[in-house]
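Sharing in case it's useful to others searching the archive later.

Someone asked me privately for the predicted structure of RING-Gid-type domain-containing protein, so I'm posting the question and my answer publicly. Question first, with the sequence:
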Amino acid sequence: MELSSIKDAFDRVAKKQKVYSSKSQDVVDQLGREIEQALATIQSSHNPSTPVDHKSVLTDLKVKLGAIGALQQLEGSQKELNTSLTKYQKLLEKLLNTDISKAYRNVDFDTHLVNQIIANYFYHEGLFDLGDSIISEAGEPDATALKSQFLEMHHIIEAMKVRNLQPALKWVSDNREQLVQIGSNLELKIHKLQFVEIVQNGTRADALKYARTYLAPFASLNKDEFQKLMGCLLYAGRLESSPYSELMSPIHWEITTEELVRQFCTLLGQSYQSALSVAFAAGVQGLPTLLKLANVMAAKKPEWLAMKQLPVSLELGKEFQFHSVFVCPVSRDQGSEENPPMLLPCLHVLCKQSIIKLSKNSTRTFKCPYCPAEATVAHCRQLHF
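And my answer, the predicted structure tokens:
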């Protein structure tokens, strides 16, 4: 809500700025026209047949410029704009509370795990010197377990930036079985990039040989794609002016590089986004709610600092919803095939046995434990993780 209010206020200020800028430009243009007209009149005085009194011309110009009231108009517009900017600044000061320390709560952290997460973030981002510094200062030598893996990943990425696919091809070849098991077609995409490079910069014979060796195994499952690639052979060396010029777009390299990083992290058992970046992004989204809650419970600060569970839910985006294991918030039982999680019409989730108890063995409607909405067992849907 705060961000929406800030955006609306910003849009209003930006709109006024455009209007006042246009008005100011009109005033300046009007002044310019009057001055140019007076200048043209003075210049015509060089003609003996039409003598002109320079003093009277300047006097008339002064009167016209005074009638325009340029200074008053510009000052008026500037004052109105300054007023809007001042209101916007006050709104920012009101809504953007920089003192986030109020949302702090006493939470026990596993120091070893936190150090590992921080180090892995830097390794994940290719900042190996920073990761090593964190490990050295924290005295956590075991936290470097993934460093060599991420070194390999960034070596592949750096090579792909200069259109060198050999490290990537070697990696997909070494991990072919694992990639097939997760349904990845990354190997085909990398061979496709290499084939297009050969078609454009090599000979038709080299491209055909590469296709027979590396693309043919994928042909039966990717007929349309294979036919398109074979059509490229007709335009060897001039692919940019062919119907297949789209294949040369840098976007294909970007997409394939991103997918390689995703698959690399998947095989490592790591998330594509580091745990630290996900936690930070989720914290930013949840911070406004935490600050409001901290203000409400300001008189009960000891209770706020000691509570193990928040009394309100934090609404985060779908990208922050992870459900590898579901625990019923009512019964505290872990979901299973016999007691699966069920989605209520209000979008809260309970285990099946909890719903049966609340509905008195499916004989009546029941109220959701977390909101005023009512539902029946028939309206609940099973979720599959």
